[in-house]
Amino acid sequence: MLGSHLAFLKAILFASSTLLSLCSYAHGDDAKQESRQVIKLAAEDNWAPFANAAGTGLSHSIINSAFARVGIEVKSIVVPYSRAVVMATKGLVDGVFNLIKEKSTENHFVFGEQPLFSATASFYQNTKMPVQAVDKWQLPPNTKVGIIQGYEYGDELNLLPNVHIFKLANHNQLINLLLLDRIDLAIMYDLVADHYIQRMGVAAAIEQTFTNHTGQVYLAFSKHNPQAETLAKLLDTGLISLQQDGSHQKIMTSIESTN
């Protein structure tokens, strides 16, 4: 009888020990999940190959990879660019994708030291209606130039003489107005222009002319977020890590997989 009692007690102790181990493992896993910070970012929907309506692109790859290096998870909300900027300005999200650091933006957001990448924008024209100018400072009087509403095009844009600016909603509109001769020139970022011109099948009708500017493209953080400075420094750390092991370059050369 005593032997059966001892066997019963051993069984109870073994079951209790196993249960405690399982609880401890589950609690540790939950704590690990809770300790992983999640941030919410607004990403634009119309700047392929950097960011598209599907929530993919070079910018997504760089930002997600950089933050993963420092233990932060990114949740992206895909919206039109102008709305993304407003959301970050109002503090509805922690930051906004693909902001060019210039006078119009640097006082409204928190920027890190490391840009995501640099991007060059050029003037594009209808090959049948070329503009007679050697650079942006020599444009003929009343030149009609199309841009995207809310995008940044460098500090010199407002200083250009002889220019009438037409603000449009997207790249398809820009290119179509060029084809219809409704505008004389369109300013587009070169990799973005290549994507949309090829997709629309108008490479023979639209050509690149002279450069507008080269901008440093950042993930900009909302000043309403008290952790903005910390997040900017963490992103810098992640970006430097990507650059040091070659991952950043691999992402930037993987354009064909993001279109």
What do these coordinates show?
This protein is an alpha/beta fold. The protein has two domains: 125 residues, Periplasmic binding protein-like II (D-Maltodextrin-Binding Protein, domain 2, 3-Layer(aba) Sandwich), CATH 3.40.190; 97 residues, 3-Layer(aba) Sandwich (D-Maltodextrin-Binding Protein, domain 2), CATH 3.40.190.10. Helix content is 37%, strand content 28%. It has seven helices and eleven strands. Strands 1, 4, 5, 6, 7, 8, 9, 10 and 11 form a nine-stranded mixed β-sheet that branches. A two-stranded antiparallel sheet has the order 2-3. The longest helix has 34 residues. It is elongated, with a radius of gyration of 26 Å. Belongs to the bacterial solute-binding protein 3 family. Keywords: Signal.
- Are there runs of 5+ residues with pLDDT below 50, and where? 1-34
Enumerate how many helices there are, as a single number. Answer: 7
Helix fraction by DSSP (H/I, runs of at least 4): 25-40%
The name of the CATH topology of the largest domain is D-Maltodextrin-Binding Protein, domain 2
What fraction of residues sit in β-strands? 25-35%
Summarize the structure.
The protein has 259 residues and is of the alpha/beta class.
Layout of helices and strands:
Blueprint: H1 2-35, E1 37-44, E2 46-47, E3 51-52, H2 58-68, E4 72-79, H3 81-89, E5 95-100, E6 109-110, E7 117-126, E8 143-148, E9 163-168, H4 171-179, E10 185-189, H5 190-200, E11 206-222, H6 228-244, H7 247-252
Parallel strand pairs: 1-4, 1-5, 8-9, 8-10
Antiparallel strand pairs: 2-3, 5-11, 6-11, 7-10, 7-11
Helix pairs in contact: 2-6
